[in-house]
Amino acid sequence: METTSLLEKGPSRAFFIFRYTFLDMKGTLSCEACGAVPAPHLPLRITTTVDTLMLSIPVHQWRVYRLLTKIGDTVLTVLGRIAFSACRMLGIIKLTDDAETAVSDRSRLLWLEAKKRAIPMEQLLFFGKPSDTFRVVTNGKEHFFKSLPFPSVDVDVLRMDDKVWFKRAMEKAGLPVPKSFGVSDMKGARKALKEVGVACVKPRTGSNGRHTYTYVKTEKDLQEALKSVKEICAFASVEEQLEGNLCRATCVGGSMIGFLESQYPTVVGDGASTIAELIEKTNAAKPDGVGDIVMNSSYAGQLKRRGQNLDSVLPEGTRFPISYRAGSAIGGSNREHGRNVHPSFIPIIEAAAKLTGLSIVGFDIIIPDPLKPESEQRWGFIEANSLPWIDLHASPFYGEPKDLSAAVWDQWASASLMR
């Protein structure tokens, strides 16, 4: 049996698979700044910092990296083959084809579609614990992937995981993004804040909105934000704060298939009730299937940075988001639009997908109203995700569900990885 490189192909992919496989196996953690998907801070800080440094290598030096990649690919293919076989013999790694052991809805959707197509997809268990790493055997070849199967990517493409570099690339192509600056200390952060006015401060690389600070205006808030960011990454992105809903557009093969508009947990002022009372009223009146708004230190911090607190009384009719996180699970809502957004957005999003060079890519975009013409709004791309959560499109609170798993497998097959 032939075994492809565990990087599919190249050392960057191999490190990517194994690093995040072990990060997935984090056990029970709790961190309000991380949100619903906490991760151990020290290994996360190491990986995000190394990623940022690697992605900062000047483009003209990538030739050397590509040469090292080819050499490393050969070495890792041999070592990976030996290590995988040895770990299986020792019982460290086991395989299962039971889709019920999937650690995420994203993987479960993909797995169920694989079963429909008779694709032999198996999950790797490390010391008996499910991971988000999988093996597929087709035509005598083993393919390993983390979460989603996608073709090998060029090292230039990997730069899209860097939030600052991503925005620079988008801006250069004439695509809308907020102003963004990469910083590593307070001196740089102060300069960036002066440029953007009101800032959103976040790790330069990373995902799931961990340790993100919105509506940063003062030096004190900036210091607090930078300190939090540095718990999981040595480098921060200080970017212009955009107003609007968090939208997730997912493209497969350059075509936008899913578009989920998520609303933040929000209260509406009545001119008499405090924010704390409005939260209670909102929770009592929420539709079935929507989670409660539960205050925590992260939410309280955003209230403070916006000049409010739980005792504040909002003017009648004022809509006030409690958190920068969005979705029905935390008291907000969402709607799947598919391609039924204003048609002016579609070519711009698909142009961005082609620019990334990724066959599967998701974008986080801030848009006040995706049903109105894009030219009438201040909006922008804020992140690109090489492992988008396709399951979010399959289970929206409102709108027609979109299962992207079939398109993902079609894309994989068209890339000849199954031959």
**Domain tally:** 4
> Mind summarizing the main beta sheet?
6 strands, mixed
Percent helix among the residues? 25-40%
C-alpha end-to-end distance: 14 Å
Strand percentage: 15-25%
Order of H and E elements: EHHHEHEEEHHEHEEHEEEEHHEEHEEHEH
| Sheet/helix structural class | alpha+beta
Strand tally: 17
Mean pLDDT: 84
Count, helices: 13
**Which regions are unreliable across 5 or more consecutive residues at pLDDT < 50?**
1-28
C-alpha Rg, in Å? 22 Å
For the largest beta sheet, what order do the strands appear in spatially? 16-15-10-11-14-17
- Spatial shape: globular
Structure, briefly:
The chain is an alpha+beta fold and 419 residues long. The protein has 13 helices and 17 strands.
Q: Can you walk me through this structure?
A:
Strands 16-15-10-11-14-17 form a six-stranded mixed sheet. A five-stranded mixed sheet has the order 1-5-4-3-2, sandwiched between helices. It has a four-stranded antiparallel sheet with strand order 6-9-7-8, sandwiched between helices. The protein has 13 helices and 17 strands. The protein is 36% helix and 21% strand. The radius of gyration is 22 Å and the shape is globular. The protein is α+β, with helices and mostly antiparallel strands. The chain folds into four domains: 146 residues, no CATH class; 62 residues, ATP-grasp fold, A domain (Dna Ligase, domain 1); 117 residues, D-amino Acid Aminotransferase, Chain A, domain 1, CATH 3.30.470.20; 59 residues, no CATH class.
